[in-house]
Amino acid sequence: MGLKRDVSLAAALGYKGQGPYLTYILHRIGGSALFILFTVYILSLVGMESMQSLMGNWVFQAFMLVFGLFHAINGLRITILDLSPKLIEHYRIAINIEWVAYILVAGFALFVVLRNALGG
Amino acid sequence: MATRTLPLSKRGFNFETFMWAFTRFTVIAMYGLILAGLIGGLIVSAQTGANFGDILYWAFFPNLAENPLGQIWMTILAKLMVIAFVLSACGHGVHGVLEILDDYFTSELARRWSRNFIITYAVVASLIAIYIIWTK
Question: Across the interface, do A89 and B3 touch by the CB < 8 Å criterion?
Answer without folding.
Answer: yes
